[in-house]
Amino acid sequence: MQPITFDGLDQSGEVACPTINIWRRATDQLKMKKPIVDRVRHGDPGFLIERSGDQIKVRTARGRVGWITYWFVRELKQDWLRGVDRPQGDV
Q1: Is position 17 within any domain?
Q2: Beta-carbon neighbour count of residue 89 at 10 Å?
Q3: Are 66 and 23 in contact (CB under 8 A)?
Q4: Any bridge partners for residue 19, and if so which?
Q5: What per-residue confidence (pLDDT) applies to 77?
Q6: What gap in Å lies between CA 26 and CA 32, rounded to an integer?
Q7: Per-residue pLDDT tens digits of the chain, which is 91 residues long
Q8: Is pTM beyond 0.85 here?
Q9: Where are the beta strands (DSSP E) in 1-91?
Q10: Domain span holding position 13
Q11: Cα(57)–Cα(40) distance, rounded to whole angstroms?
Q12: How would you class 28 by CB atoms within 10 Å of its CB: exposed for 0-12, middle for 13-18, buried for 19 or more?
């Protein structure tokens, strides 16, 4: 597992999302259900377990496992902003 930092900053550097929901399944957030397994705060540590497209399976510091979008992982967001591992067609 890769260590990560949960990140709620927007592109301007402001904390836009101080609390980040960790979802039971990657599709739950799209269906607007309530199966949240944990909540983390901007700057909290965690672990990346796997990646499926834009969805990231993570483990929180409390040991809970769930899914978030890559944008809430500081290390992946920095890669995207630098153009590393960016899917074709993204600006």
Answers
A1: yes
A2: 5
A3: yes
A4: 41
A5: 78
A6: 11
A7: 899 999 998 878 888 889 999 998 766 555 655 688 999 999 999 999 999 988 999 999 999 999 999 889 988 876 666 666 544 444 3
A8: no
A9: 2-5, 19-23, 36-41, 45-52, 55-60, 65-69
A10: 2-76
A11: 14
A12: middle
Q: CATH number of the domain at 54, please.
A: 2.30.30.40
Structural domain contains residue 82: no
Which two three-digit tokens encode residue 2?
A: 């890769």
Tally of structural domains, the chain: 1
Tell me how long the chain is: 91
Q: List CB contacts of 18: < 8 A, sequence separation 6 or more.
A: 8, 41, 42
**Residue 7, C-beta contacts closer than 8 angstroms, at least 6 positions apart:** 42, 43, 71, 72, 73, 74, 77
C-alpha–C-alpha distance, residues 76 and 71, integer Å: 7
